[in-house]
Amino acid sequence: MVDRLLLHGETLEQLRAAFMVRVQVTTSGCWLWDGDAERYGNFRGELAHRVSWELHQGPIPEGLYILHGCDIGGAERAAYGCVNPMHIRPGTPKENTQDLARAKARARSRRTKSAHHHLGQGRLADPISKIPEPELQQMVAEMVYRCAEEARGSGLKGEPLIAMCEVIMLQKWGPLTVGITRRLVAKFGGTDQKILHELALSAAERVHGPAPTRADQEPG
Asked: Are strands 88-91 and 65-68 parallel, antiparallel or unpaired?
């Protein structure tokens, strides 16, 4: 990967320097790409954390992802924008899916604790209920679009991609996502998790098209 990132006449050290210009080092030791902990970075068309691994550790073994293991400020969530080669590691697709599931569970736990805190303070409100239906639909569409754009470079497909979209929506919009799903549950029935999954499925389909049905997968 590194060879194709080099501009004409550019040395490897110059490439490293160009890469590090975009990095913000935090007190936790994370190297945040453009200072953003929650987004996957992009460097010359490649995911920044994968570039960082190859620049500092060497080639990525074929078929492996680069996984994040760091937390930001004890928040118990992976810093997806971190490109510190000491905070990332190669992992299998199965390990990547497991990491996404754990991140989703942590996000759900934080959301529940936050709701309980505000309820105890008597400040729990649902501003989503006051948003007119057309504006709510536009808001959902925007969430799905931005989620699809962010997930586009992940290389994931199928259920792992849907799981990533759920994580992105919860991390990026948090209480807003919860309020919207509750509003949709109240109108159409179902559960919060089902609605969120359907939103994530819509986002995934915008990246790779509709998921294949069982009939599509059966040999003719």
From this structure: antiparallel
What are the pLDDT digits (tens) for 133-171? 777 777 777 777 777 777 776 677 777 777 777 777 777
43: enclosing H helix or E strand: strand 42-43
Query: Which pairs with CB-CB distance under 8 Å and at least 24 residues apart come from 1-7?
Result: 1/46, 1/50, 1/51, 1/54, 1/59, 1/60, 2/51, 2/54, 2/55, 5/43, 5/44, 5/46, 5/51
For 80-108, the DSSP string reads: TTB--TTSEEEE-HHHHHHHHHHHHHHHH
- Band the pLDDT of 117: cuts 50, 70, 90: very low
- What ranges make up the beta strands (E) of 111-201? none
Report the run of H or E that residue 48 belongs to, with start and end: helix 48-56
Nearest Cα to 1, choosing from 42, 41, 58? 58
How far is 183 from 186, CA to CA, in rounded Å? Answer: 5
Confidence check: pLDDT of 56 > 60:
yes
